[in-house]
Task: inverse folding
């Protein structure tokens, strides 16, 4: 069980767009060159970010991608769900109701409430999502600026030219 | 990104062994019949639980599996790690150091500290792991007993006989 590489690519690309922030779209090829990523696969991730409302796509020869929201309004949860989808990590298939054990259960309340296994795993997943939701792209950018203040300038030099 | 079905199977099977708790091993075929699971694949999960020290395997004609620890000493994190392995959900591949952006970074501290993206995703993963670690097999069994008090008896009738 592991996130796709697309999450790392997406967060760094969003961060780069936040640093560049010159109001002009940046093309996929330029964004891909920023971290030596395969352009076509990065493009698929960028399209997923557009569908999730995190990026705006500008068509045309001078087109590309722009942040669709302020970095403060893009959470790590937004990015993970955009790339990975909104399926739960743990999916309960109600095996409690199957087989010999399920057949022996005859109380009216035996299956009335959610399975305690599902609830336990779900509580942990809620904690994960809340921690992702509590961290914005702006927070991550600020943390980088604090411990590596040259990086924002490096991104602007690498990606900010016409 | 999703957990394998094996996690649901493992937690329910461990719970069933906690309910039966008659000091005698229960065979894979009986455990599989408990929830109508495919025996060979369940057996692989049970072997993973043995390797993780959660189950004890007893060989022989009357052999099978027993809990290796008290239900209070088995956490949901123990089960998830036994089945899914101990890889992080988010694996940082240090793309920050690659490509045009990486080449433009020249400050001595640019890569001295962990990547802020890795740290942000890692904090959420820590929250998930802590929430899993805080819930024991005994807690999950107790929650089931509270809202569906017949289930423990049903498990003993289904799996507890010789």
Result:
């Amino acid at each position: 069980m592991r996130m796709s590489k697309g999450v790392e690519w997406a967060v760094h690309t969003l961060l780069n767009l936040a640093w560049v922030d010159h109001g002009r779209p940046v093309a996929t090829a330029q964004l891909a060159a920023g971290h030596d990523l395969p352009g076509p696969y990065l493009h698929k991730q960028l399209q997923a970010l557009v569908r999730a409302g995190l990026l705006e796509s500008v068509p045309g020869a001078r087109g590309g991608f722009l942040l669709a929201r302020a970095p403060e309004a893009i959470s790590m949860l937004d990015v993970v769900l955009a790339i990975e989808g909104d399926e739960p990590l743990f999916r309960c298939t109600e095996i409690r109701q199957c087989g010999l054990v399920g057949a022996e259960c005859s109380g009216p309340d035996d299956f009335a409430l959610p399975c305690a296994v599902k609830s336990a795993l779900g509580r942990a997943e809620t904690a994960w999502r809340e921690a992702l939701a509590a961290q914005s792209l702006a927070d991550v950018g600020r943390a980088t600026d604090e411990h590596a203040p040259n990086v924002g300038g490096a991104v602007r030099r690498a990606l900010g030219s016409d």
DSSP finds eight helices and two strands in chain A.
